[in-house]
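Quick one: structure for this chain?
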Amino acid sequence: MERLPSSILPVEGLRRDTEANLTPDALRTTVDALKSRGIDPTDKAVKKGLMDELSVLMCSVNNQYQFLLKELQGQVAAQAPIRTEFLDTIKQKNLTMLDILNVSRHIEGIAPFDGSSTFIEGWQNTGSGSGSAGSGSAGSAGSGNEQRLRDERKMLESRSFEQLRKHMVEITAEKNRVASNYLGLYGFLNIVAVGLLIYVAGVSRGGAANSS
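Got it. Here's what it folds into:
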């Protein structure tokens, strides 16, 4: 069973809401546990280290989760019996990623300590708990990922495997569209860069000829 990095906190046994998000009191517990070990998430450098650690873990667990989902689709296609233990493993990976998103948003929302006032409890400076979408595009993206994970877990729990397959196809298509857009943008920027180089080279040659 996956755990969050020891520098942050294992989240096993913490309370969850009806959507399986860690509750505000559970998130406060993560901050209290950090402080009890002398880890101050209001320090910018410390916060960056925690967020980097969570990002690495998120990538690792997501790779495992995607692999298991592909294995599940292969078993469904082969009409093989789906073991409950196998589904439980996939759902646990799903839940671990949801925990990482919950905790990372909570830590990211803690106001930095500027030294002008006494230490303030980190949880008092956050939004409304795990349901808060945060601010800016990062908050919106995190919220969207959390909803996707919740939807996928519900499909797993109801054994709606065909619905899950269609969902995965849609996600893959969306990722491909985003990748294509980025490639198109990079191609355009490369053309502009080449054009500027040619222009600069031409201007340089013209200036050299005039000076001679």
